[in-house]
Amino acid sequence: MSEVVTAGGPSAAGGATEDADGVASGGFASLREQLTGAAEAFAGSRGDLGGILTGLVDDVDRALREPLEIFPVCHHSPASALAMVRRLRQKQPSVIYLELCEDFQPLLTELRNCTLPVALQAFASELHGHPQDWAPLSVVAPITAASAEYQAISYALETPGVELVLVDRSTDHVFQWLPREPRTGGAEPATDEAESATDEAGLHGDAVGLEIGDLRPGFAELEEHLLHHGKVRHWSEWWDQYVEQPLVGADYDTYRQVMVLIGSLFRRLRPSDAEKLDRDEDRERFMWTRMREHLARTGIDRGRALYVCGAFHAASRVEEFGSDAPVTEFTISDRTPTKWLYGLIPSSHSAIEAQFGLAPGSVSIAAATWKKAVTKAGVKPFALTGQRGTSAGRAAAPAPGPAGSGRRAAGAGAGAGAGAGAAMLPATPSVPVDRLSGFLSQPPQLDDRDEAELLGWCVDIVRLARKNGYLSSTADAIAVFETSILLAGMRGRARPTPYDFQDAAVTCIEKDGVPGRRDVRRLCEILLGGDRIGSVGYDALPPLARDVYDRLKPLGLDLESRTIQRALLDLAGRPDLAPASRLLWRLRYLLPADAVRPIMGERRLGETASLQESWDLAIGRYQRSLIELGYEGVAIEQVLEQRLRQSVRATDATAATALAAVEDAILYLDSPTFVAELGARAVELLEAERTVDDAPAVLRRIRRLLAHYRATEPELPAWCEQFVTVGYAHYCTLLPTAFIDEQTGVRQVAAMLGFLFSLESLALTLGCDRAQLELAVQQSHPEVPAKLALVWAAGTQLGTVTRVELRARCDDLLDNPLVLPAFPQYLSGFVQALEPVPSLAPFVVEVLSKAFARLPDPVLLPWLPSLITTLREQAGELVPTLVREAGRTFPGTLPALDAFVPPWEAASAPAAAPAAAVPAGPIADLLTTHPAATDAIATLLGVEAVWSESGDAGSSPEVAALLTAHPAAATALAALLPV
Q1: Residue 813: enclosing H or E segment and its boundaries?
Q2: 10 Å Cβ neighbour count for 700?
Q3: What is the DSSP code string of 545-580?
Q4: Can you give the three-state secondary structure of 603-652, one letter per residue?
Q5: Using CA atoms, how far apart are residues 411 and 459, in angstroms rounded to an integer?
Q6: Contact between 235 and 216 (Cβ < 8 Å)
Q7: Is the peptide bond before 957 cis (omega within 30 degrees of 0)?
Q8: What is the distance between the alpha carbons of residues 548 and 553, in angstroms, rounded to a whole number?
Q9: CA pair distance 481, 243, nearest whole angstrom
């Protein structure tokens, strides 16, 4: 590496001076003159163009002259990571200031227990000082091995005496500084190239992403210009071609100046009114304020510190820039009372690409470039001791000595001239040496073609394509090789890049269709690096996740594996697996559906537990969801209880949701007290409801709960009894309004009647008054045909409408041609009435049969589609009941159908002979003395009550003949009775 150049302020000894025109002179004076001359030649005067060009140089000069060395980086950049390794081994700083949320500091040591990539996460569900509709809040900061920030973290944690200080704003300030508008979640809107075909792109969920060094043009015109003239498809390819590859082998001074120049370019060409720019400047003020506070508190020499930040922030022009900056009016606001929870979650290359708008496969290509660059440069990267997935190694540098002491830089990659002077930094910085002029004026250094590497790619992609169903051959490998070279030449590159190879493979191998799940582009991404997926180790998991792993250990499965594993539970032979079974059912309720999926076995109210169960477990694949459960409690049971309690206390909670919570509590929690609490809340919600939209769900759930308690408990719980009495009075009160309300559907009204009629006996025993129901039905006067049919059906149940009257009304409807178009609505109401009045099924079959028998074809055929549509939409779940009743009514064979006489026609035929006299006896005397009960039953059945004269058995010859022919029954009865 060339001579180390440190930076200082403009007023430092040996710094730049100003000429008569006020233009700073010094190391970049020549470059300024060249750029000013170019601007005059191009635009005719210095003007805005000259100001921008010289401003870029001023930003570089200012950053390099800062006594606190600024290390500009780009997020997940192999060039930045390689430069970081070289600089750390050479400079051996004792303090590293890192652009990362300051409250993430305690999480860094947990990286030892993880497999990269992972993401640092802050999570908050209960908000104080932030809009409630933003909840829950989540912030993630991904960490990969091929990143400068990971190298800095590893060096600081593995080198004794080195202090790592996170100086970026806290996660609470991230949301404090956001506009007060409803948050839709996620980071900046991703471009189309960020769409990933894999499920791993959602590992970060809707969290806000933080990255160090977001270098991208601030407006679309500039990016489009760069992509067009760079002959590339997307920004990730442009960055790799024109920044990464040239800087991978550059010396530190060149790397540093070029990165600041790029950051300044994108900063100056960003729209001045950009809202995000204001937040970026506030971040810069925050970071410089924190660094000055730390320097003043510790008294550390600035020459022994390193400030790692994005290249965009390195070119900052805020007043607070610099360790010697004067005090300004900027103050750091206090954090809100929001309680933040911190942890590590798994990440992946595709998740990073999707969240930050990178091209699919770009992070994987960067990781492959990092490995190749490390091997080529012969440097040893830093890694945390004991970390999985990386070669364990400590920092090779010795512990930093006291301030001002000399140390010799160690490590491969450091030049011979960077030895002992690396740690002996002068008190006043020297003038920066211009590296930009040579870098910008000379043509790009084109790498020689690595034919062995390209041939290996071509052979491997053909083999991988054949495994995935493509009919590829050796000829395709040759075609891909030649096409890659051709594309690289057309784009001005001597060495084909992974992007050239990818385009060539798609052109030569992909045919009309994709035979498998993966297309050729995805296969190239797998070949060039694949979607590396990280995991969080056991020791870094929250207590809840560790408890889950411990309790599922008897299953004998590797729960950290990302594959789907089959768990077989023989609960009859191994009762010790019962706790694991209960835990799996709770996880099934809390985790995504595919994380814990039952194959055999079920858990429902009124059913006994299965003796054998089979599960498909993918807990390792959904580790992020399990970790986030740990933010809500320390045990699965606690989280489940909180979830259920929150569901019934939510602002949109209804009685139906409360009853659903009661069912879940019975199934998954062994806590009658908690069930009683949820049941009491269900009663409160039912009393407060002013609509009956959830009446069908309420009826279905309360029936199921009552059946469960009657089968398992000696008596009903108090909340169940209260729910029935409150519901009876509540629905009676709302019934007249529901019948005439256009917004209330027929199904809801039928469910109300079903609640009232099916639970009437229980409600009456608990003290309810039946007169309230009768008055409610009498006060109901609907105009909609379907609801009118419901009122008639309710009248038959209450005894105010006989079957004879109901049959006559339906016959009148069928005889009235003006009513026929609306008859399907009447029929739909009768079908819905099967819910409250199940005994009405034979009558509905009768009405439907009469309609098909009486209506002429010109009326019947147009009427059929409306009938079918009405039944399917409004009474789909009740049609099977109707079909079963029709099956019992009509004969099952064709010959029997020819002689079939419908029951309703047979009942209407005239009687053949008068009824015989009833034999005298105590029963006959009782009925004739008190005929009211018998008359009422006859009225309900639609039969005319005609009483016969009493007589002896001999007056009925049929009865006498029956007793004579079969005397055994009479003889047995006489033996039982004391006659």
Answers
A1: helix 803-815
A2: 15
A3: HHHHHHHTGGG---TT-SS-EEEEEETTT-GGGHHH
A4: CCCCCCCCCEEEEEECCCCCHHHHHHHCCCCCCHHHHHHHHHHHHHHCCC
A5: 37
A6: yes
A7: no
A8: 9
A9: 25
The torsion angles phi and psi of 518, rounded to 5 degrees, stand at -115, 135
- Give the Cβ contact number of residue 624 at 10 Å: 26
Burial 540-579 (b: 16+ CB within 10 A, else e): bbbebbebbeebbeebebebeeeeebebebebeeeeebee
Q: For residue 59, how far is the Cα from the chain centroid?
A: 43
Give the pLDDT confidence score for residue 390 in this predicted structure.
59
Contacts of 964 (CB under 8 A, 6+ apart): none
Radius of gyration of the chain (CA): 41
What is the Cα–Cα distance from 973 to 111, expressed in whole angstroms?
A: 89
Residue 313, phi then psi, degrees to nearest 5:
-80, -20
What lies within 8 Å, CB to CB, of 967 at 6+ separation is: none
- Predicted local confidence at residue 38, as pLDDT: 64
- Would you give the DSSP letter of residue 533? B
Q: Report, as ranges of residue numbers, the positions in the chain whose pLDDT lies below 70.
A: 1-27, 32, 37-51, 180-222, 271-277, 388-431, 442-449, 529, 874-875, 906-922, 942, 948-958, 978-979
Closest CA to 449 of 504, 486, 503: 486
Place of tokens 């990255």: 211
How far, in Å, CA of 275 to CA of 600, rounded?
55
Q: Which of 813, 814, 815, 796 is nearest to 805 (CA)?
A: 796
Q: What are φ and ψ of residue 81, in 5° steps?
A: -65, -40
Angle at which helix 655-668 crosses helix 578-590, to 10 degrees, equals: 150
CA atoms of 156 and 152, how far apart (whole Å): 6
| 295/299 Cα distance (integer angstroms) | 5
pLDDT reported for residue 210 = 62
pLDDT at 10: 34
Question: pLDDT of 500-523, one tens digit each?
Answer: 888 899 889 887 778 877 888 888
Q: Measuring CA to CA, how many Å separate 470 from each of 223, 477, 514, 525, 834?
A: 36, 13, 8, 16, 58
Contact 332, 286 (CB under 8 A): yes
> How far, in Å, CA of 139 to CA of 142, rounded?
10
What are the structure tokens assigned to 371, written together?
A: 């490995």
Q: Which amino acid is at 762?
A: L
**Bridge partners of residue 137, in order along the sequence:** 124
pLDDT score, position 54:
76
Bridging pattern class, strands 918-919 and 950-951:
parallel
pLDDT in tens, 381-429: 999 887 766 554 444 444 444 333 333 333 333 333 333 333 434 434 4
Q: Where are the beta strands (DSSP E) in 798-891?
A: none
Tokens found for residue 505: 């493979």
* Contact between residue 524 and residue 578 where contact means Cβ atoms under 8 Å apart: no
Q: 322 — alpha (psi -120 to 50), left (phi > 0) or beta?
A: left
Question: Identity (one letter) of the amino acid at 947?
Answer: W
894: exposed, middle or buried (Cβ count in 10 Å: 0-12, 13-18, 19+) = exposed
Q: Convert the pLDDT of each residue in 369-383 to its tens digit.
A: 888 888 888 889 999
Q: What is the largest CA-CA distance in the chain?
A: 144
Half-sphere exposure (Cβ direction) of 147: Cα atoms closer than 13 Å: 28
Cβ atoms within 10 Å, residue 513 = 7
- pLDDT score recorded for residue 214: 56
Token duo for residue 621: 């694949």
Contact 667, 609 (CB under 8 A): no
- pLDDT at residue 637, rounded to an integer: 92
Q: Are 341 and 124 in contact, with CB atoms under 8 Å apart?
A: yes
Can you tell me whether residue 873 is helix, strand or coil? helix
List residues bridging with 150 in a β-sheet. none
Take residue 844 and report the two structure tokens written for it. 């509905």
Contact (Cβ atoms closer than 8 angstroms) between residue 534 and residue 110:
no
Residue type (1 letter), 135 = A
In the numeric block, which tokens belong to residue 894? 């064709």
